[in-house]
Amino acid sequence: MYKKLIRPLLFRFDPEKVHHWSFKTIGLLYRFGFGPLIRMRFLQRDKRLETKVLGLTFPNPVGLAAGFDKDARLFRELAGFGFGFIEIGTLTPRPQEGNPKKRLFRLKADQAIINRMGFNNQGVDIAVDRLKVPHDVLVGGNIGKNKTTPNDQAVEDYLYCLKELYPYVDYFVVNVSSPNTPGLRELQDKAPLTELLSMLKKAGKLHAASHDTREKPILLKIAPDLNETQLLDIVEIIEDTGTDGVIATNTTISREGLRSEPSLSGETGGLSGKPLAGRSTEVIRFLHQKSNGAFPIIGVGGIHSAEDALEKLDAGASLVQLWTGFVYEGPALIKQINTALLKRNLSLDT
What we know:
EC 1.3.5.2; DHO_dehydrogenase; Dihydroorotate_DH_2; globular; membrane
């Protein structure tokens, strides 16, 4: 139904407007009592899907990637579509509008999206207020720096977000890999990244002690455009700083092999979707092999089918996340992945 009726209608309109309309529609569906029907249709509960990683038990290994519910507006409702966890953000200390519109583009011929949103969000404090509502959803907090914050002061932005979110999320993601904030990717260089992650891990220990809670895992989200030398540096940095894991990968600045019109494929920003599938899996496999599986990896990038998700799990990912695939394939994709995992587990058991 989604791909035959709903998606063709939605794809006739501006993608950013459609995103806001979709949020309003989902909110209204829950408000008028359709939540149980949504959960009945899409939510799949089975102990065999539970995945224990990062000191957490995920009800299933399929999550929603950051960027979809930036401000924690619908994290409980979105979990009802079957996600095992929801990652909010990227959040910054102060609200910011992001980059000028138009800044979101569908490349339908490539089953891809280009975005140059620029960390548009209402600020971490608004998200915290929403997260205070009782819920049973595993939530990750993806944190970044404000556009106007110089790189030599970026650590303070990340530390502020960590402090404010600490009691309310289950894990953190350090985003230094978005291509849409000027100079941000410079923080992936070895020296500044080592300093940033070391300070966040130290602060995390102090926050855990002050809140009398377990230490929350901190993961690093990396770009797919890093070369092998840089990826080896990432493995070393993760080990040296005690960072808990990696999310591979963010969007790419590459435009290799696209079939869409140059007027679309030439737009600046980060590319996500099908064209990213192979490269993100390569990065996952490289990190997993070179680290000897020393840390968990969350695989994201180009997952449009159950087979795509299984490929990333086979390459070394412990969990996977959707974003563009969720837009193109609809919520049925989550159940398809979990069903494929159950079938695989059943075949292995027999």
